[in-house]
Amino acid sequence: MIENDRDLVRMSSQEVLQLKTGDLIFRKGYGMVSQWVSTYLEHGTYDLTHVGIVMVRPSGVFVAHALSSKKMKVNGVIIQPLNEFLQASNPENILVVRWKNYSSAMDSGLWSSVNTYVREKIPFDKEADYDDSSALYCNEMIVKLWMNELGLIDPPKNSIENKYRFHNLSVLYEPSSTDIIFSTFQRYDD
Question: Which backbone phi and psi does 68 adopt, to 5 degrees?
Fold first, then answer.
């Protein structure tokens, strides 16, 4: 429950210092929608239900993500301080990965695209319609940025691959494409 975990430290200051713009931060939230996603949609290695993009600025570390929250009065793409993002995270379900083919030369293009989404007030895609870019859900935003803006993901070969890509968070943390930077998950392969 979020109230019981509010004061728990999710990442130490040393761990936060390791983060770079373009890292992807995954979490499992507390709400009913997170539980539904965990049960019915996400079947990857980790029990995760939401993802955002780490954005490091001189003023701090932020997370860009698409969110719908009545409690926070948010419906769309936002840039949120890392600590606020982490407060909505189950402390045992956090993962940060870095794409192997992401480079700091991509930072300005990433910032520009994310700021455009925020400025245009792109709403959260409650229908999960990945063919319609007028609204975005969390991993849809990232897959579209990684595929269309940054060229980090190849276009899909067919409609089945396309649907899988947009409906599975695990596509964004595949070991062949990413390195784990931070994880609260216990490793079982040691």
Answer: -125, 115
Fold of 2-183: endopeptidase fold (from Nostoc punctiforme) (3.90.1720)
Annotated domain spans of the chain: 2-183
Cα 128 to Cα 130: distance, rounded to the nearest angstrom: 6
For 125-171, what is each residue's pLDDT tens digit? 888 888 888 989 889 999 999 999 999 999 889 988 888 888 888 99
* Beta bridge partners of residue 75, listed in sequence order: 68
Q: State the pTM of this model.
A: 0.89
- 177 token code pair: 């494409």
Using DSSP's 3-state secondary structure scheme, residue 100 falls into coil
Percent above pLDDT 90 for the chain: 52
**pLDDT tens figures, 30-60:** 666 666 666 656 667 888 888 999 999 999 9
Distance of alpha carbon 180 from alpha carbon 174, whole angstroms? 10
Burial 10-30 (b: 16+ CB within 10 A, else e): bbeeeebeebebbbbbbbbbb
How far from each other are the two terminal CA atoms of the chain, in whole angstroms?
Answer: 30
Kindly state the tokens that stand for 62: 């932020």
